Every structure is written in C-alpha cells, then in structure tokens.
Amino acid sequence: QVQLVESGGGLVQAGGSLRLSCAASGRTLSTPVMGWFRQAPGKERDFVAAINRSGARTYYADSVKGRLSISGDNAKNTVYLQMNSLSAEDTAIYYCAAARGYCSGSVCYRSAWYDYWGQGTQVTVSS
After folding, report:
1. CA-CA distances (angstroms) from residue 42 to 39, 97, 102?
2. Per-block average pLDDT, block size 10, for the chain (127 residues)?
3. CA dist 74 to 6, 29, 45, 51, 71, Å?
C-alpha cells in the first residue's frame, strides 16, 4: 500500500503562484509514476501532469504547458506541482496519484492507470 498526502493548496489571486506537494509513504518503490489530476465543480477529474521518477520523464496536459511544472524528490518521496500564472480556470481540487506500472505517452493521462490517490487539496484562484 502507498499513502499520499497533498498539501499547499489555498486561495490565490489570478496571476499568482502556488506549489503543491504530495508526500508518499509506504511501499513507494512500487510506484514508478506519480501524477497530478484536478477536478473542478461539476466536471470530471482531468489529468494535469505526470512524472516517471526513474527516468525523470514528464507529461503535461496542453492546458497547463508552460505554466505548471511537475518535479520529484526521491529522497523525500515527495512530488511537487509548481503552478504559475494561475487563472480562475485552474480552480479545482488537485489530487496526487501513484501508479504501480510504468507508462508513456497518453497512457499516463488516464486516471484508470493510477492505483493510489490522495484526498486532494483545494486550489481557488480569484479573478
């Protein structure tokens, strides 16, 4: 089992920045891929970004490229999501996820690929 705990969410003005953290515990070596998803009110959960920790390969949704950046610290078992130039459209609950299998390309975008999920952290961007 792997436990994921997100932190760093909050209220920010449009144009501002936030950094989300996801601390993993348990059998973290069994999860080579970590990702971030988000769910806005009344909408489905959407892929945001993912990182293949062994190869440091990253994937991003088109809507966040150039503004959001995923990174990881294997020594701390923590994954980060740096969010810049935020807009009201980024308002959502952000979830951290971990997958037991490697993925590449579009497979990493699928929520069904991920086996473990955190409880989520709310990000609200005021316009």
Report:
1. 8, 21, 31
2. 96 97 89 95 96 83 95 92 97 97 90 97 96
3. 16, 10, 26, 12, 10
